[in-house]
Amino acid sequence: MSARSLLSLAVLAPVLLGGVALSGPATAQDAAAERPTYGARLEGFEYPFKTEMFNVSSQGQSLEMALMDIAADNPNGRTVVLLHGKNFCGATWEGQIKSLTQAGYRVIAPDQIGFCKSSKPQAYQFSFQQLAENTHALLEARGIEKATIVGHSMGGMLATRYALMYPDQTEKLVLVNPIGLEDWKAKGVPYQPIEAAFEGEKKTTFDSIKAYQTKFYYSGQWKPEYDKWVDMGAGMYGGEGGDQVAWDQALTSDMVFTQPVVYEFGQVKVPTLLLIGLTDKTAPGANRAGPEIANSLGDYTQLGKQAAEAIPGAKLVEFEGLGHAPQIQDPARFDKALLDGLKQD
């Protein structure tokens, strides 16, 4: 799910992305002042393209939704909306934005309310329906009547909800290693109170994020170019607004755990493409369950196939050797599969 919501190694599991417990506490170097810090809305972290703000009136509040709206080099008349995961931001789609715009697509990459450069309300009823409604309002304001919706990790749950709510405005649904392909709660993962999730979130560090991502996102192999995405997430927690960041992340953890979309896959009415890295073992909260349950969760070698069978007419593309973030781990391979999939009816 994506570089913002990971815990220190000792408490990683109780928050959202508990897969297999990682041993050992964060190192002393982890707290070193040499790592950058950012504001609660990622002030100080530069996005790869111009960032704009969309004013959202929601739940009695005036909020701002950050976005990048990038024109195509030679427009083909189609728009792709990129929805980030829980531990990612719109910026982490940098490589795909370049590939898509070069191929003729207009690209919109928003930061959802509660994430990254967008507003982080103290009180908000987070739901995938609400985030889908916010995204739909953004697209309407931009004059976009129909778009391909691409969602990664948590963004896959949101993209699915969007397609269910707005099928006539969804040209195609693309799910990139989405979470929510199984119901962890129904499989035995205990619920975590928001207060406990908040305490865990506050322990998030650069080293804890990097350790988790190495294991689940990048198949155990780290590259220096991944560091900036870890700095992006850890920097928000380490800044003056870190507690507000942690609070909203705890609230959205609860949303992910309690609002499964897997039971509605059969109702998806739009063409769907699944892009699945097979070494992924992401399973929110698995460390809160016993070993027998935990070891049965997050098997993307089967979850992708099951989702493709459940979603009418879905096409599945699997990536051997890639993990939870195939678009970052091997962008050339991923982008080819994405562009090929978008060309098909």
What does this 3D model show about the protein?
By secondary structure, the chain is of the alpha/beta class. The chain has a single domain (9-343), classed as 3-Layer(aba) Sandwich (Rossmann fold). Helix content is 33%, strand content 15%. The protein has helices at residues 94-102, 128-141, 154-165, 194-201, 206-216, 227-238, 242-258, 291-294, 300-310, 326-329, 331-343, and strands at residues 52-58, 61-70, 79-83, 106-110, 147-152, 170-176, 272-277, 315-319. The protein has an eight-stranded mixed β-sheet with strand order 1-2-4-3-5-6-7-8, with helices on both faces. It is globular and about 45 Å long. Residues 1-32 have low confidence and may be disordered.
Highlighted features:
345 residues; alpha/beta; Rossmann fold; eight-stranded mixed β-sheet; 11 helices; 8 strands; 33% helix; globular; disordered N terminus
**Biggest sheet layout:** 8 strands, mixed
Please give the count of helices.
Answer: 11
Distance between the termini: 28 Å
Rg estimate, integer Å: 18 Å
Query: Which CATH class applies here?
Result: Alpha Beta
Order of helices and strands: EEEHEHEHEHHHHEHHEHH
Query: What is the CATH third-level topology name?
Result: Rossmann fold
Shape: globular
Helix content: 25-40%
| CATH architecture label | 3-Layer(aba) Sandwich
Low-confidence stretches: 1-32
Q: From the helix content, strand content and strand pairing, which structural class follows?
A: alpha/beta
Q: How many DSSP-defined strands?
A: 8
Report the sheet-strand fraction: 5-15%
Let me know the average pLDDT.
91
- Order of strands across the biggest sheet? 1-2-4-3-5-6-7-8
Number of domains in the coordinates? Answer: 1
* CATH H level, superfamily name: Alpha/Beta hydrolase fold, catalytic domain
